[in-house]
Each structure stands twice: as C-alpha cells, then as structure tokens.
Amino acid sequence: MLKLRQSERSQMWYFFKVMSFILILGTTHGAIRYRRSVNPEANMNISQIISYWGYPGEVYDIVTEDGYILGLYRIPYGKTNNDDSAQKLVVYLQHGLLTSASSWISNLPNSSLGFILADAGYDVWLGNSRGNTWARRHLSLKTNSREFWAFSFDEMAKYDLPASIDFIVKHTGQEEIFYVGHSQGTTIAFITFSTIPKIAEKVKIFFALAPVFSIKYSDSPLIKMAYKWKSMIKPFFGNKDFLPNTSFKRFVGSKLCPLKTFGKICREVLFLMYGCDLENLNMSRMDVYMSHNPAGTSVQNMLHWSQLFNSSRLRAFDWGSPVLNWMHFNQTTSPFYDVTHMNVSTATWNGAHDLLADPQDVKNLLSEITNHIYHKTISSYNHIDFLFGLDVYHQVYREIIDIIQGTL
Predict the structure, then answer these.
(1) pLDDT score of 265
(2) Lowest CB count within 10 Å: 176, 365, 379, 405, which one?
(3) Residue 372: beta bridge partners?
(4) Which residues contact 254 (CB under 8 A, 6 or more apart)?
(5) How far lies 210's CA from each of 11, 251, 321, 323, 365, in Å?
(6) Cα–Cα distance for residue pair 344/61, rounded to 1 Å
(7) pLDDT tens digits, 278-300
C-alpha cells in the first residue's frame, strides 16, 4: 500500500508540475516570443520537413467511410533512388497514441524510419489517425462539435486504417504492402487485421514496434492518471479533444524547450506522455519532438484506454449503458477483440523498460499471435526509443529492412 501511495504521489507531482509549467509559460509568452528555435523543423508541417531534407513528398486527403478526412503523406523515393518510374515495394507507417506521422521524420534522415526506408528504395507512406494535428476535418461535422470527437481507437481500426490501406493499394497498383506500427499504431492493426480479412490480405508483413494489445501491467503515468481520475476527465477536459497541438504548445516546444531553464521540464513532460530514455535520446532535437507532440486525440479515446487498465484483454469502448452498447454492438456489453483471428505474418520488437507496452503484457500478446515470424526484446528500450532512439537504426530499423529483403 505504501508503494502504491508513493506512486500516486509521484504521478500527481508530475501532473501539477506540468500544469504549473503551462501557467508560468502563459505569463512569460510575450517576453520571449522572439527567440528562435534550434531546429527549423520545429516550425514546419510534415510536407515542409520532407522537402527541407531534400526528399520528394506528396500529400493526399483521404475520406473514411464515416466522413473523416485524413492527411496521408508519401515519400515515393529517396535522394539516391530517384527513379520514379520503377515500381517499388510499399511500406506504410502508422503512429501511436498522441503522436502523428511526423514521428517517423522527426530525427535526422539517417535515424528517421521514413527517410531510411525511402533511401533503401521503398515507396513510403505515412498515415494519420483521426483527431491528431493532420486529421481534424470531416465532410459534414464541425471540428468543434461533440459529434466529431465521439470516437476512439475502435473507429481508427474500423474506418481509418482500411481507408488508408485501400487508397495506397489502389494508387500504387501493389497487391500487398508492408505495415509498420508503433504503440497504438499496432493496436489498431491487431484489430483491423483480425476483424477485416479483406484488409489483412493486403498486408504482407506486419512490423509491430512496442506492441500494445492489453495494458494490465502498464506503468505509464499518463494511462494511470487517466484510470485513477477517469471520473474527472470529462469535467476537466470536456468531451471533445484531448491535448491538441495548439499554437501555444508549438511555441513552448520550439522556443522554450531548447532553453536550459525549461529543458528539464520539457523532458519530464515527454516522460509523462511516453516514457523517456535520456541516454538514448538526441536532446538537440527536443524542440522538434515537443513542438509536434502531443498531437492530440479525443477525450473518448483516453477514456477507452482508461477502461482497459488492469484488464488482460482488449475490448471495444464501453458506451456506459446496456442500451447504448446494444445500439453500437448489438449486445449489452462491449465485445472483446481476439488477435488469434489474425493471420498476417508478424514481427515484433519490445523494450524491457517500456512503461506503456509492459513486457508482461507483450509476453501475453505474443502467445496469441498465430503467424509470428520474429521477436526481439531490447533490454535498454523504453516506449519512445522506437521512434527517437539514437541507436534505433541498428537495433530495429536495419532488421526491418533485412526481413523485407528476405521476402524478395
């Protein structure tokens, strides 16, 4: 009990530190607004970052079956493999919770998976889930409406991922693609590939980085707070968006996080959201990380994750009453997802120090993957190392390329 109370106090301390940080910055915003960021990409959008590093880029607005408009980005070839006429293998990258497609291009080109794959000769596509910075539009719903934000990762799996994969397959003429997901990007893939066979058939190999299918043993401060304070989430955050990427937050990330005075607090904010391995993080890129993240999601999505805490199984969002559940699922309780129904070849990587994708949760998941072709546990890795780790090319990305090449 003492350990639990200490953990709770620690989480509350982090929370109030973050809140105090934001309040203090609100009063100092005008005084230091002219200071420049260290890295220009901190003030760029995804297309601008791709162009900044000399890569070709394309952007498409795809529309889901339920009307959401998602920004889908493409790096069709690398700086050295610039033959656009040759058909290339397609690799699709899907970000995790509270991040966006920018996660795959936030580091230098030699350590950003989006650029690495393009230079290796692949046709790279970067997806976005509804509700983040680049997916906040709808054909008929207004972004500030309650109806727009009535979604969680259920809808991302049911609508967003199928729309993205279908578009890519039709646009490129490829029958199969390779899929790389991180964190929630693996969660929605497990759901989609186990429930929509026609989409699963279009995926040759699923590469799961820090896979998340259950969070019974998760020690993530953000998820723990969402669970312990779930009754306060709606009164505090409302029923719309959660931690959106606002101009003020971009100012904090690009102008203040590079300052020594605020750098430590920025790192703690990053730790609160994703966990952090300081020794393996390029601290000179902190302004880029913090200006693009958090990228936002829905309050309902966070409530969905809080419902799963302490559960060893993944289930759909509980709408709060048997009547509402019946309206959505034709049953009085939200259904469970069964990953054993997925037959896609799957390779997995996890970190022994991952606070969100806890090793025990991952172990339980691996026992249920029916077509598991490779697994690696990296003893030093936390959740964010798979995106921003200094040695991530040697630990993970090179192995992804090797496995793809092995299929040729």
Answers:
(1) 74
(2) 379
(3) 346
(4) 37, 42, 43, 287, 290, 291
(5) 22, 30, 33, 35, 11
(6) 27
(7) 789 888 898 999 899 999 999 99
Catalytic residue among 102, 103, 183, 220: 183
Q: Which of 160, 241, 277, 354 is catalytic?
A: 354
What pLDDT digit, counting tens, does each position of 222-250 carry? 777 777 766 666 766 778 998 888 887 78
User: How many whole angstroms separate alpha carbon 296 and alpha carbon 358?
Assistant: 23
Cα separation, 208 vs 350, in Å, equals: 9
Q: How far apart are CA 360 and CA 212, in angstroms?
A: 11
In the annotation, is 183 catalytic? Answer: yes
Contact between 258 and 80 under an 8 Å Cβ cutoff? The reply is no
Measure Cα distances from 172 to 58, 74, 86, 344, 346 in Å.
Answer: 13, 11, 11, 21, 23
In contact, 68 and 122? CB cutoff 8 Å: no
Q: What pLDDT does 2 receive?
A: 37
Asked if 391 contacts 398 with a C-beta cutoff of 8 angstroms, the reply is no
Query: In the prediction, which pLDDT does 232 show?
Result: 66
Reply yes or no on whether 95 is catalytic.
no
Of the candidates 71, 57, 168, 34, the one whose C-alpha atom is nearest the C-alpha of residue 118 is 57
Is 361 one of the catalytic residues? no
Token digits for 176? 């199969």
The one catalytic residue in 129, 298, 383, 385 is 383
Contact 216, 311 (CB under 8 A): yes
- Cα–Cα distances (Å) from 263 to 34, 160, 258, 293, in that order, read 18, 35, 6, 15
